[in-house]
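Take a look at the protein record below with the fold in mind.
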Amino acid sequence: MSMGHEKDREGAQRMDRVAKTTFAPVYPVIAEQILDRCGISRGRCLDVGSGPGSLGIALARASDLAVTLLDSSPDMLETAEGNIREAGLSGRLSLLRGDVHAIPLPAGSVDLVVSRGSVFFWEDLARAFSEIYRVLAPGGKTYVGGGFGNAELRDSITATMTRENPDWKSFRDKNLGPDNRARIAGVLADLGHCHRIINDDSGLWVMMEKGE
């Protein structure tokens, strides 16, 4: 195994550990918010930058959605595959290797696109949001951004993570702060797609909708 591959695998394992411990309460809360705010509980869902699959698994548990986990990392997808199997949801979730800037799916093929946390790492926001809009089916919606679901979880997780890394809160504030919100809003305004931005205790989320 190359050093680079070993590093990628260690990164996937580390993210999986955090998702199953400190962040574990977040995913069911966000999944319920997605279902409530988007009003889509069946059809095909794409989780972009899915990592170990925590959000996609929570959505599959709470709905009738068929969920596809999209990630560019083979190690993340391998970790997600194990998590799907452990959850007993192998028939409900599938894996797809790819990048948000060139999603390997046909136009109009997805009813719901979700993502938690990956948007802050996208190299080209305009291209990424254009690709997401392209794969949306008519009437399809997105719930893309970052957050913790509510203030209580946000504060609890921040306290835990800051004890481990004193710089973590500044990283969180940068991602969810006004500058990033303005940058995302500017890109969406230029694209002209129907959208709204949620910025409250649940986090910073982009909801786009494709017309019928």
Remarks:
- The mean pLDDT is 95.
- The chain has one domain: 3-208.
- The longest strand covers residues 136-146.
